[in-house]
Specification:
By secondary structure, the chain is an alpha/beta fold. It contains 16 helices and 12 strands. α1 packs across α14.
């Protein structure tokens, strides 16, 4: 879920509507993740012996099931995939070093946006691969007209809430949002928790005022050039008031880490957290929570939609030798068309599929909310994908830390500081 700016893979709310119209049609075919074989699945003929390939990706959560999938692939086809350990936040740096040194990998992941643009000289053309036709509308990573990447799946974020403490019907604008935080605070609990990590502090929540612009990427381009200011834009002016309400009525996020944020939510101490569907993985470790969870949009300017997008994409290294490229494409075809591969995507990786030939299967409550919102078009885009690379961690986060540490800083000053930070990061 990262960064950035690349016009060739524009994620808009309209694109999301088209995408899930396609995903919805998947329920009308029989190519289910754990059902009958796909029409495009490999034939029963003896698999071709292919060259060993390597795979490198950033998502720590799927490291173990991905290794298990590689073993299944070898068992079913006789071909070998070496899965390299996930590098987390250091991934892009390590990937760049490996590629520059000509050390592979054969298959790797890239975040949608600037990271994808940075590495595009390495992408093999996947347009003619059998799985390409199954990528949901507007979800493929493209270089011009060429399909060069396959989406992991869709993800979404917003206000994750405890249904026994919060009713979305009562949180529809700044006034009702503030009243809700004040009421829960008076009851000795915390209305909303952010946490100190850069994306959970500012990266995700500031997506909303960007996404509500008539042309989010156009606005970002103008902001990069200094032609517009957040401080002069009404959605950001209201966003600053939301942040003032959060600072005044909730636990200081500079004292909160992701683990404690989700732990306090699971135990009923936090009524809401600004998080994504991925956070359910931590909630389920607490067993029966004793309450139901939901996800709603940050009600900035009356918004009632959650943010949905593609965080990462699989690509094939075109600089690898021809036999490895061939083997890499074969592996991706197997992963996206075989019963074993589709089952892993849905049931082991826990991805919300962005492929029309893969049904969502049984989803956790937050992922189900994202899936349904996407199908119904109740989404706003991930504008943050088009931010200048590194600006959230290096520039916006420090400015936000200062806001939460200085109780006297006004929302207006906060916006001016964000503008200054953006100007510095966009150079």
């Amino acid at each position: 879920m990262k960064k950035v700016k690349q016009a060739t893979i524009l994620l808009t709310a309209t694109a999301m509507v088209g995408m899930l119209a396609a995903c919805g049609s998947a329920s009308n075919n029989n190519n289910q993740a754990s059902g009958s074989p796909s029409a495009s699945a490999p034939s029963s003929a003896a698999p071709e012996k292919l060259k060993k390939i390597s795979l490198f990706q950033s998502k720590v959560e799927i490291a173990e099931p991905l290794e298990a999938l590689a073993k299944t692939y070898q068992k079913e086809t006789g071909n070998e995939v070496e899965v390299w350990g996930s590098a987390g936040d250091a991934y892009a740096t390590q990937l760049q070093a490996k590629l520059a040194a000509g050390e592979g990998p054969t298959v790797f992941s890239v975040a949608t946006g600037a990271e994808a643009d940075k590495f595009k000289s390495y992408y093999a053309d996947l347009s003619d691969e059998p799985f390409a036709k199954d990528i949901a509308k507007d979800m493929a990573l493209k270089d011009g007209d060429k399909i060069v990447g396959v989406p992991y799946g869709v993800e979404g974020f917003g206000l994750v809430y405890n249904k026994s403490m919060v009713d979305p019907k009562n949180v529809t604008d700044l006034a009702s949002f503030t009243q809700t935080l004040e009421k829960i605070k008076s009851e000795g609990k915390n209305g909303l928790s952010l946490s100190q990590e850069a994306y959970f502090l500012i990266g995700h929540i500031i997506n909303t005022p960007f996404a509500l612009q008539a042309d989010p990427t156009g606005f970002i381009e103008k902001l990069n050039k200094g032609e517009v200011k957040m401080a002069d834009t009404k959605e950001f002016q209201e966003f600053a008031k939301f942040m003032e309400a959060i600072r005044a009525n909730t636990t200081n996020p500079m004292e909160v880490k992701y683990d404690s944020q989700m732990g306090d939510f699971a135990t009923g101490k936090n009524a809401m957290v600004h998080q994504g569907n991925w956070s359910y993985g931590m909630l389920k470790d607490f067993g029966d929570l004793g309450f139901d969870v939901g996800m709603m949009g940050l009600p900035l300017a009356g918004n009632d939609k959650i943010a949905v997008g593609v965080a990462s994409n699989w690509v094939v290294n075109s600089k690898a030798d021809a036999d490895q490229v061939k083997a890499a494409k074969a592996f991706l075809n197997w992963m996206f068309t075989s019963d074993s591969g589709k089952n892993a995507i849905v049931n082991e990786f826990k991805f919300i599929p962005a492929m029309t030939n893969i049904e969502a299967g049984e989803l956790d409550p937050l992922s189900q909310t994202v899936y349904e919102a996407t199908k119904n078009g109740q989404t706003i885009p991930w504008a943050l994908n088009y931010f200048p690379q590194g600006i959230i961690v290096n520039d916006l986060a420090p400015a936000t830390q200062a806001f939460f540490l200085d109780k006297k800083m006004t929302g207006e000053q906060f916006l001016k500081n964000l503008d200054a930070a953006w100007a510095k990061g966009a150079k």
